[in-house]
Write a structure and sequence with these properties.
The chain is α+β, with helices and mostly antiparallel strands and about 725 residues long. Helices cover about 20% and strands about 30% of the residues. It is built from 15 helices and 39 strands. The strands form seven sheets. Strands 6, 7, 8, 9, 11, 12, 14, 15, 19 and 20 form a ten-stranded antiparallel sheet that branches. It has a nine-stranded parallel sheet with strand order 29-28-27-26-23-22-21-31-30. The two termini are about 40 Å apart. Bound molecules: (2R,3S,4R,5S)-2-(hydroxymethyl)piperidine-3,4,5-triol. (2R,3S,4R,5S)-2-(hydroxymethyl)piperidine-3,4,5-triol (DGJ) binds next to loops.
Amino acid sequence: MGIKYFDEEGIFKLDTRNTSYVIGIADEEKFLGHVYYGRRLEEHRMGYLLRLGEPPFVPSKNKGDRISFMDSFPMEYPAQGVGDYREAALKVRTEGGHRACLPVYMSHEIFKGKKKIPGLPTSFGEESECSTLEITCRDALLNLTVVLSYSVFEEQDVITRHTVVGNDGQEKLYLENVSSMSLDMDNREFEALTLHGSWARERHKQRRKLGIGYQGTSSGRGESGHQNHPFMALMAAGCTQEHGEIYGVQMMYSGNFDIRTEVSQFNSVRWQAGIGTRDFCWVLVPGEKFYAPEALLTFSAEGIDGMTANYHGFIRKHVLRGKYKDKKRPILINNWEATYFEFNTEKLLNIAKQAAELGIEMLVMDDGWFGKRNLDNCSLGDWTVNEEKLPGGLSHLVEEVNKLGMKFGIWFEPEMVSPDSDLYRAHPDWAIAVPGREAGMARTQYVLDFSREEVVDCIWKQMEAVLKSANVEYVKWDMNRPLSDLGSSGLPAEKQGELAHRYMLGVYELQERLVSNFPDLLLENCSGGGARYDAGMLYYSPQIWCSDDTDAVERLAIQEGTAMIYPLSTMGAHVSDCPNHAVGRITPFETRGYVALAGTFGYELDVTRIPKEDREMIPEQVALYHKYNDLVREGDYYRLESAQDNHLFDCWQVVSKDKKESMVTWIQVLGGASRHSRNLRLKGLAPDKYYRIENEDVVLRGDSLMYAGICMPVMSGDFKGKILHLVEE
Ligand code: DGJ
């Protein structure tokens, strides 16, 4: 078991294959202190790092300087108002309006396996794969218990953390922050690595050095968002892509989040991740518990590549679920960029017929099939088939598609309502809004109040009826606007601060119903492209639409950022038509294929109308997908070059677990400016194995390929690509 408690020293030691995490119980008051997190250590006697012997000593020895102690002690889960002026992980207000709180160690439990967090996506593992430490702390005056939960996944070097706060008293408590994790460490000239963007520009990486004071990334949009991402890594001085120490945290949560650092007067870093505190206040009534979402923590001494490997391994095994978790996904063709709202059964069947002949396996009907929707200004909430567009209904269309040997998938946007819809006309109070204030619209739509059970039930019944009416094998779940005007007509005044989180609980509830009632369904999440791409959503859908920007060049940065923490098998990526609808760029069809092959692979175009040469290339691309997808889904991913950094070329590699096979994708962004062949050093191969580079008739040893590299010649023209396939000789 990866967790040990050393009674004599009051030390908890959590070990994974390559890391150790140490917590200590300090002083008579039993403060819980953070001792160490980093490379694996064999020794546990490290309580000296809590500095209890140094002035100002601990309060039991020097009560007169209690505040100085509080303001420097590395508290494992700091609360507010008792002299620690750094950011508090726990902020509680009492009925009397006070905010002081100090939970101290009370008891603990260690067990094999891991519990599910009620209502929230939770990573999971067998008893042989993980073990859990639950430390219960208590503030006696407030009758408040805080359970700090740590699950240790030894193989993946991941420790998951979450917090449960309980009210054992007679009075209400108002929770203003409940972080999922807090970590105090000495600042080793950390740089924060985060992911940011906008619509059609998701998850571009950013690095910035930590300065004194606060830095962070957050969302208050009710979704994890295009703009900021629920992830942060701290890179110690000297850390690079391949080398050095890096800590990663990502939230397994899809709503508002805060991830922040605070560098203190003594150059220590307090690092916290959890639910977003903007607009948040949870009323904890006597006898109840609040469950904070899970944070996924990892450490690697092997740079960004090491962190990536840990997260990929972990998410593949302990987050993704369902039939398609480890399976090849059907190659789909989606009609959004092909037709937008202008389609009918005939048009869809024409696309499907051509697509089937070319080897495409599933037709996905996107937005516009329901109510009277011919534009994005009506009918959300009315999930009944528009028989004017689809004569004979959904079942007829699906039967015809199935006759072609293809599967069928459908689009929904379950969380939304159009003002011009029967649902809104019948239940205007089901939209999130503040009484008396006209709620702001985005894309001419409001957000449904998913904190209300009856709203979730109503949407569920409609979706269930559609899915039962035909052989639907895939659902694309979209969400095209953020939350605003937070107000729920189903919640009393003092609980309005719970809305954003309760909304997420409602979304999770509906997704859970969907995947448990339709276990064979392939669910793909989406949010105006990739605004809700997070480990929370991956618990329900094994793939997420990465971005509405399908341009092969723009996708390089988007997919680099995404693949930095999420497995390639989760990355929704399609070949689309040119000039690209988002940016107007023209790229070779071949290159668009190479870029999409890094993800789930599919098409987003009208196959009946694209140039003949492009159409003729589809069977080849389909064959490449079948050839490489096992490797892409199951192999180890490495980042070799980043066009985001060098502006010239991009390169990634996948190596099979047994190191017998590898695939290298090279994209030359600017031909003219490249001018010279590049030495490309591969990664992850067996140094002593010989590899044949397919079609190049070259055999080289793994060590030569990795340490000396191979020459990638300049190709003529911009946006050119190439795949190298290496097979053990
Ligand atoms: C946004 C999605 O990202 C697109 O793929 C498409 O489904 C549209 N919404 C439809 O409205």
